[in-house]
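Q: what sequence does this backbone want?
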């Protein structure tokens, strides 16, 4: 397969995405995650020592130090090699999971394969998640290409991202989503690793989660609204005269998406629920778990910390998040994550 010149097509778009999320305000403007509306009930008699708190958990066959993942972000252009290398090293040291950005570019040519494969080289002992878009999955006749992506980075799972809003607004987007569910069903059956289905910041509704579970998916990432607006990112990439900002704040807030997905547990097969979309602190992680998630994932705050303070700064931030999560557990009398999920949350207006 011939190599393309650097920073054309998909590679150029990936570089623009990273530059925009680091340098521009691409937050949701009027929509919040909804997580800040919820507060824990303080337990003045926790009946345990802080040292007793255990926030470790199992994910994709590996014990994580904390229920945390650096979410799928980048790869597929020259500058992504250093970013993914550093992110992977930090994740390995912190004992948390990591996902790579869309590997679509890796299906186009071999130029930047190393920007993806470096992750496993730097992080041999943690769960690594591959990534491909829904439009690509809809066009797949079988699992061959998806399996190539898994093998490339020795992934423990493959995430399929549902980004219909982004594809609709992207100047070179491919809003071709007929057949996506059929493709996902095929991958859950034929791929060598589990399939994770995720949004990228507009959230998954209860009905969509139910349909995915019926298709055989057992790991869901709601990726709700309130953090980075990928609609906003694509709006900024458009020509000034062609910027339709109507959909900047489109989406289901993260807290709502988590609660709706978790409400299916009573009627669906067991599944793992990941909360992402605007997760910006250990307190956010704790709230997501108490709302029903098993794991929380974050992207832009991690990338921003790495960009501003380097690997040591990112490591320090992750350590603080984990400490804050454990502090919430102590202050609610929760020794384990299972205990935390039973602790009451109340809306601030009710306090």
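A:
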């Amino acid at each position: 397969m011939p190599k393309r010149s650097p920073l054309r097509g998909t590679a150029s778009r990936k570089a623009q995405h990273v530059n925009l999320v680091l340098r521009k305000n691409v937050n949701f403007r009027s929509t919040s995650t909804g997580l800040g509306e919820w507060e824990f009930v303080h337990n003045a008699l926790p009946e345990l020592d802080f040292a007793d708190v255990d926030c470790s958990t199992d994910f994709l066959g590996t014990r994580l130090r904390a229920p945390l993942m650096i979410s799928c972000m980048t790869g597929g252009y020259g500058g992504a090699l250093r970013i993914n290398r550093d992110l992977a090293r930090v994740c390995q040291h912190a004992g948390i999971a990591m996902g790579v950005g869309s590997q679509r570019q890796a299906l186009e040519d071999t130029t930047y394969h190393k920007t993806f494969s470096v992750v496993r080289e730097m992080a041999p002992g943690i769960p690594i998640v591959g990534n491909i878009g829904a439009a690509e999955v809809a066009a797949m006749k079988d699992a061959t290409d998806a399996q190539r992506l898994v093998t490339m980075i020795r992934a423990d799972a493959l995430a399929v991202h549902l980004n219909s809003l982004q594809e609709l607004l992207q100047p070179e987007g491919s809003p071709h989503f007929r057949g996506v569910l059929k493709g996902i069903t095929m991958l859950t059956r034929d791929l060598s690793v589990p399939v994770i289905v995720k949004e990228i910041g507009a959230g998954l509704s209860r009905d969509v989660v139910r349909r995915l579970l019926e298709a055989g998916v057992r790991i869901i990432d709601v990726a709700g609204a309130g953090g980075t607006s990928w609609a906003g990112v694509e709006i900024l990439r458009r020509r000034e005269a062609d910027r339709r900002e109507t959909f900047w704040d489109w989406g289901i807030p993260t807290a709502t998406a988590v609660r709706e997905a978790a409400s299916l547990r009573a009627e669906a097969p067991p599944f793992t629920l990941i909360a992402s979309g605007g997760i910006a602190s250990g307190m956010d992680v704790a709230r997501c778990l108490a709302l029903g998630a098993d794991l929380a994932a974050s992207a832009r705050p991690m990338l921003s910390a790495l960009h501003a303070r380097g690997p040591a700064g990112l490591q320090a931030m992750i350590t603080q998040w984990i400490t804050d999560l454990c502090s919430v557990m102590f202050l609610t009398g929760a020794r384990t994550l299972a205990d935390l999920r039973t602790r009451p949350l109340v809306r601030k207006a009710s306090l």
